[in-house]
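stuck on this fold:
=====
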Amino acid sequence: MNSEQTHVIYNAECPVCSFEIDHYAAYSKDRELALSFHDLNQSDLAQWGLTEDQAARRLYVVRDGQMLDGIPAFLVLWQQMPRYHWLARVIGLPGVRQIAVLTYDYILAPVIYRWHKRRRAKAGRPVQG
């Protein structure tokens, strides 16, 4: 694992997550950015100190040995991609950041997680804690 690289841990089985992160991965690859993308369903989560359940609940980013999740993780990711610097600056503004964190933590992430759990249960593959 390259410590200078930004590692993104995401749920590729989630249609919302994979749509967004696949776009970032393609953008990153085209520009040879120091970003790597790890599908929680295909990765050894123990290397990140995460369980499947934890990893499925939100986006995680590891940068300079520090693990971030949620909006702080998105900010680090967007800061690494020239096209998205502006988004990191706007979402990082005081007030905007707090609203984004509350929206992600209490609305978006829980809804997407519950959707993920339902899809897994229907497939006979419940999320492992």
